[in-house]
Backbone:
């Protein structure tokens, strides 16, 4: 019989071998901060068809930088959260909202009024949950119900290993309506209803170990001194602005028209303009402000050029003026080979223009097309037509932080996989990373190697135990029963018969 000490060593080896065989990237992976990424989701295709159809006679509108992807999905942007490469646990919060309205009433309201915004996904193991802020109108009473971060849909990640990446990128995740989601959805669908599949990405920052423990630099000013200095040197009530940006998407349906089958065109941003996917940013604003009178006059850099069949429209030299609670966005407009300078395109409300933390901010103010703007668009829209909202940010000093441009990206959406097909693996290490991260494709090989090594060690240990076993009496016959085999000899194959499939026909919401 083995002495107690060797037996204890064998037991310890058996317990620690699986951990020893894990790659360092999984055994000691630090949690990474999610910063950037997008969620693409159509909510439910039959619901979109119903809303815009002859019964509901409605539509949808976007907010907070959300975008449409063709006619089949909405894109939510600027993910924030955390990702654990060791376990694959992911939390990603996205920005943007979509509001569905239908069944117009005589007072201008809509009997169907549902807003979904700020979706959040939480993934762990082979499943996940999609949460969202929901605002819906009760069909019986007409009252609005607001709920924050409703667990709206369950996500099926069966067979997907999210461990070992530098981020997450999955597509075609089957989604099913929860009981809470059915209530928040105003009862249009029952719990368990299949929703559109979800595709998402969550980018992460490289971990920076030790940053939190960095020693304070000698001679750093006391925070209280800094606050006092800021009060003494705050932004002047009037004067030149330090920087400014204005965000405007022109009009969602116009962008869809430009890239659609009729115009078959595109757009280009140059001279400092930026494309956020659903909004265009004009940058490097210069000009003057008067905080007391709440006025702003600013000019911006950037050129936006639309082209297509029968279309050639350029907007440049954008300016914004705000006074008496109303703003006007103007631009030089070039169309049909001629240029008109300083044409006022849209007006927007700016009733509260008070400085806060050195910033004058107007966020997503509804915009209306002017007479001159209607002419600039060749009569496609009448004066007074609602255009995309305007966001204006004016920094009064160099310390003020301008809002970031929504991270919507310009690449096409990931094509959803057929129901039951494998879901795309998590993102792998990017070029320049310190070392290769274990990908989902390497994990089966790793598991096979670990299992084989464990089986071999177990067999050796059992042979040692049998060889060192001595009978108490030489006359005692050997056992007539066969000793148990080594671990792993009883191999069972699991057959999954419950396959999630999406319906082949779309149903109409229950009335």
Residues:
């Amino acid at each position: 019989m083995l002495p107690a000490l060797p037996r204890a060593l064998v037991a310890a080896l058996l317990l620690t071998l699986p951990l020893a065989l894990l790659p360092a990237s999984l055994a000691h992976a630090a949690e990474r901060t999610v910063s950037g990424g997008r969620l693409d989701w159509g909510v439910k295709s039959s619901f979109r068809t119903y809303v815009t159809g002859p019964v509901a006679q409605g539509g949808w509108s976007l907010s907070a930088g959300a975008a449409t992807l063709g006619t089949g999905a909405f894109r939510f942007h600027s993910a924030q959260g955390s990702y654990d490469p060791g376990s694959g646990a992911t939390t990603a919060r996205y920005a943007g909202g979509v509001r569905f309205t239908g069944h117009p009433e005589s007072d201008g309201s809509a009997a169907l009024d549902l807003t979904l915004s700020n979706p959040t996904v939480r993934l762990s193991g082979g499943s996940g949950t999609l949460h969202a802020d929901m605002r819906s109108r009760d069909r019986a009473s007409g009252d609005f119900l607001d709920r924050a971060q409703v667990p709206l849909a369950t996500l099926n990640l069966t067979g997907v290993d999210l461990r070992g990446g530098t981020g997450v990128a999955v597509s075609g995740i089957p989604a099913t309506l929860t009981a809470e989601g059915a209530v928040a959805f105003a009862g249009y669908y029952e719990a368990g209803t299949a929703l559109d599949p979800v595709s998402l990405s969550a980018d992460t920052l490289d971990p920076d170990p030790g940053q939190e423990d960095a020693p304070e630099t000698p001679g750093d000013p006391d925070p209280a001194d800094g606050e006092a200095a800021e009060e003494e040197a705050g932004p002047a009530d009037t004067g030149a602005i330090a920087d400014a940006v204005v965000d405007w998407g022109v009009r969602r349906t116009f962008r869809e028209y430009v890239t659609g089958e009729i115009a078959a065109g595109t757009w280009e941003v140059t001279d400092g303009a930026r494309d956020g996917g659903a909004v265009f940013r004009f940058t490097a604003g210069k000009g003057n402000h008067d905080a007391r009178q709440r006025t702003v006059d600013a000019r911006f850099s950037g050129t936006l050029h639309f082209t297509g069949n029968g279309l050639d429209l350029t907007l440049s030299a954008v300016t914004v003026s705000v006074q008496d609670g109303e703003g006007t966005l103007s631009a030089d407009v070039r169309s049909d080979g001629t240029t008109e300078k300083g044409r006022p395109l849209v007006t927007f409300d700016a009733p509260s223009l008070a400085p806060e933390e050195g910033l004058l901010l107007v966020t997503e103010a509804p915009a209306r097309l002017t007479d001159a703007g209607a002419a600039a668009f060749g009569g496609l829209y009448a004066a007074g037509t609602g255009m995309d909202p305007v966001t204006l940010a004016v920094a009064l000093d160099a310390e003020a932080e301008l809002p970031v441009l929504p991270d919507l990206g310009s690449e096409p959406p990931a094509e959803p996989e057929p129901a039951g097909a494998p879901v795309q693996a998590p993102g792998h290490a990017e070029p320049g990373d310190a070392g290769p991260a274990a990908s989902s494709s390497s994990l089966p090989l790793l598991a096979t190697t670990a299992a084989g090594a464990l089986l071999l060690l177990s067999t050796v240990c059992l042979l040692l135990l049998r060889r060192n076993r001595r009978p108490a009496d030489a006359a005692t016959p050997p056992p007539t029963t066969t000793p148990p085999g080594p671990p792993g000899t009883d191999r069972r194959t699991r057959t999954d018969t419950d396959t999630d499939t999406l319906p082949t026909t779309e149903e109409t919401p229950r009335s």
Residues 15-27, 210-232, 412-454, 469-508 have pLDDT under 50 and may be disordered. The first strand starts at residue 32 and ends at 35. The radius of gyration is 31 Å. Residues 128 and 366 are 36 Å apart (CA to CA).
